[in-house]
Fold this sequence. Notes:
5-stranded parallel sheet
Amino acid sequence: MLLSQDLAANLLGHPRSVSRTASTIMTARFASIALHRAASRLGRRFPLAASMLKQINQAATGADLAWQARIGPGAILFHPQGVVIGQTVTIGARCQIQQGVTIGGLGQAGAIVTPMPMIGSGVRIGAGARILGGVKIGDDANIGANAVVLIDVPPGRTAVGVPARIR
């Protein structure tokens, strides 16, 4: 079910043709999500195998997507190279993520892992953006290219700059 919604979202960017489904399935942007979905499903029973599949995903597409991350349906990683998504990150439906984006915690303090971001539905994240710590990004928000988001972003608003400011 999730994978079919991912495929439908990714088809929107391709011109209409007989082979558009086949050509979409062969893209790195779809492969990165498909491999993440497979690793997530596998991880419920076989965490080591899921970790191996995650590494295959990273080698094949350049996307470092933790298999434990929850990514909603209809996600698009336009250019998955350099995208990093942490273990306990939650991303809503229909999110669009550009290349070089990092979504994760602020690191580890001893044995305590810092909180991870929660991304709403319909969020658009520009190239090179960093969303760090326990922030909440509201539905339909926009994160500008190269923004460093350390604060909550309300629904429908835009965050730009280093550190990010709400516009």
